Amino acid sequence: MEVKLATSYGFCFGVKRAIEIAQKHHNSATMGPLIHNTKEIQRLQKDYNVGLYQNLDEVKKDETVIIRTHGIPKNDLQILKSKDAKVINATCPFVTTPQQIVKKMSSEGYSILIFGDETHPEVKGVKSYAQDDIHVVLEPNELQNISFKYDKIATVAQTTRKKEKYLQIVNELILKNKEVRVFNTICDATFENQDAARELSNEVDIMIVIGGKNSSNTKQLLTIAQENCKDSYLIEDETEIEPNWFLNKKLCGVTAGASTPDWIIQKVVTQIQQY
């Protein structure tokens, strides 16, 4: 089986930075999963004794706590500091940007619209920086159900969302509102990985997307791959590969989400090449 890797895939800047921070702070713990990749979190636990807190009550005084790449709500951050914990902020700078935009625009009297998944930790964190009147949508038709408090609106996007869908939402807003401030907060790494997946999925017989099942950017890559290659599959590691996927296939494309480490990607590629 011939394997072709996407021209852009895997760890983004924010994830690399967070991993490096965690590896420098042995015997610490992260507030929520550092990244959306269970295998890499297990490696950090085993090799660096980096634990995991799921709620604030678990944190004890003077402990070192690392803030996850997706960030946490503003009030949670204040609570951590009040516990006298040593807080190391590994929030991706591309996530910090929409937090600060929402904080600023909300203080200037704008209604806020976030394009993203309201249940995602990144969106929860960004949302917490608004003072008043904030809304979250995933689809353009959801705008019909929103009544904005103010006549001027500022909009940001979850960093891993598809730019095409964001444009649709922005166009709807501009047509129906007097003033709309649009901030493109989808990160460059997401653009590059998505464009590379789209291009590769047009060339191959089968497409394998590697990443966490709960990772937003990985699921976006799968959706893009499926648009051009119906035989596209999402796996977390090589143990999930099914040999029958490759029957009568010659060329396999491989891409990976922004939280997928190289050591997992290499194991997957080696396994596929054996078929």
Overview of this structure, please?
There is one protein chain. The chain is an alpha/beta fold and 275 residues long. It folds into 3 domains: 2-9 and 188-273, Cobalt-precorrin-4 Transmethylase, domain 1, CATH 3.40.1010.20; 13-91, Rossmann fold (3-Layer(aba) Sandwich); 94-182, Cobalt-precorrin-4 Transmethylase, domain 1 (3-Layer(aba) Sandwich). The chain is 39% helix and 19% strand. The chain is built from 9 helices and 12 strands. It has helices at 13-24, 38-48, 74-82, 93-107, 121-127, 163-176, 188-201, 216-228, 262-273, and strands at 2-5, 29-31, 51-53, 64-67, 86-89, 111-115, 134-137, 152-157, 179-182, 206-210, 232-235, 251-256. Strands 1-12-10-11 form a 4-stranded parallel beta sheet, sandwiched between helices. The protein has a 4-stranded parallel beta sheet with strand order 3-2-4-5, covered by helices on one side. Helix 4 (93-107) packs parallel to helix 5 (121-127) and helix 7 (188-201) runs parallel beside helix 8 (216-228). The longest helix has 15 residues, at 93-107. It is flat.
